[in-house]
Write a structure and sequence with these properties.
Layout: E1 8-11, H1 16-27, E2 32-36, E3 42-43, H2 47-54, E4 59-62, H3 74-97, E5 104-110, H4 133-146, E6 154-160, E7 162-164, H5 170-178, E8 185-186, H6 194-199, E9 214-215, E10 217-219, H7 220-232, E11 238-242, E12 248-249, H8 250-261, E13 269-270, H9 271-280, H10 286-289, H11 297-301, H12 311-331
């Protein structure tokens, strides 16, 4: 039996990405074993159960980790880091204790590990940034994946960009565009407290004013496709950038969103407005303003063909999905 015909174990499968993967595998008739805090076949405190679930499986996929959509205060920073390191370390211990562990382990990571750039795109061979809380989390997280000795297990870290789909980060952007405030997001210098500077949570001015910061993204269908490709391609290991080969600027993104929802104009959002809004909804402006220019060099070299390489088709698909869902709800 080939590895891809055997069961797959997924940790943290109740989120947006995880649900799409679970649905895709089960639609094909593949057995899926889930690990989670509350929902799942196995709980995180059940070490024996995790080892049994991993025995004979074809692949382990770990997406567990507290959402970064929050304010980076002390308690949230601790949760963000510990939820990633703790779960990855538990899985490494379970893999080491399994009689027949899966030959492939794909772990979540983030493309935020790269610094902001307007002169060159980041590939997997580009050096990571060396400052800031978010970058430190990614580096520690990947170290927890790659450091343990697990002979015969091919490991890949998904350095994921912004995932677009019905339920992802695109949904609030669509709402803003419909309300007429879907213009470009403008960065500019902004003061930060000493505490935030010392914690590495103060997002510095990127040097990308007037919506010129880069937006790297991937359609949810390509998350599923890329995971499938990694499982079946022996050459794919180590850090893997998961994002379209055609990133866009923030201004271009918002223009396409406005066109998709039929809104002819959009008021811009300068940084003071974004800072106030982020404080009110308890999130961080880094998630909006950081320039992410990331290319999936290893996936492309392996021959992966993106289903949604261009932003127009990706956003049109999500908008169409949401319209079909609303019509279905109305009929029901």
């Amino acid at each position: 039996m080939t590895a891809e015909a055997r069961p797959v174990v997924i940790a943290g499968g109740s989120g947006f990405m995880g649900a799409a993967l679970v649905d895709a595998w089960r639609d094909r008739g593949r057995e899926v074993r889930t690990i989670g805090r509350h929902a799942g076949d196995i709980r995180w405190d059940d070490a024996d159960g995790m080892r049994r679930a991993l025995d004979g499986a074809g692949m382990l996929v770990n997406l567990a980790g507290r959402s970064v959509n929050c304010r980076y205060d002390t308690s949230h920073r601790e949760e963000i880091l510990s939820s990633r390191l703790g779960t990855t370390q538990r899985l490494a211990e379970a893999m080491a204790g399994s009689i027949a562990p899966p030959p492939v382990w794909i772990n979540a990571s983030s493309a935020t590990v790269y610094g902001s750039s307007h002169t060159a795109a980041s590939t997997e061979d580009s050096p990571p940034d060396d400052t800031g809380f978010s970058v430190g989390v990614v580096r520690d997280w990947e170290d927890a994946l790659f450091s343990p000795a697990l002979p015969g297990v091919r490991r890949a870290a998904l350095r994921t960009t912004i995932v677009l789909g019905d339920g992802g980060a695109l949904v609030p952007m669509l709402a803003l565009a419909r309300w007429g405030v879907g213009g470009a997001q403008w960065d500019m210098p902004w003061p930060a407290s000493r505490a935030r500077r010392e914690a590495g949570t103060a997002y510095p001015y990127s040097g990308f004013p007037f919506g010129r910061q880069w937006f790297s993204w991937v359609h949810i269908d390509d998350v599923v496709g890329a995971v499938d490709a990694i499982e079946t391609t022996d050459a794919l290991s180590g850090p893997i950038n998961l994002g379209t080969p055609h990133p866009v600027t923030n201004a271009e993104l918002m223009r396409v969103i406005r066109s998709a929802v039929g809104m002819p104009f959009g008021l811009p959002a300068p940084r003071p407005v974004l800072e106030l809004g982020a404080w009110l909804i308890r999130t961080e402006t880094e998630l909006l303003l950081k320039s992410r220019w990331v290319l999936p060099e290893r996936l492309l070299d392996a021959g992966y063909a993106f289903r949604y390489p261009r932003i127009e088709a990706a956003i049109d698909d999500v908008v169409a999905q949401r319209r079909r869902a609303r019509r279905g709800s109305a009929v029901a």
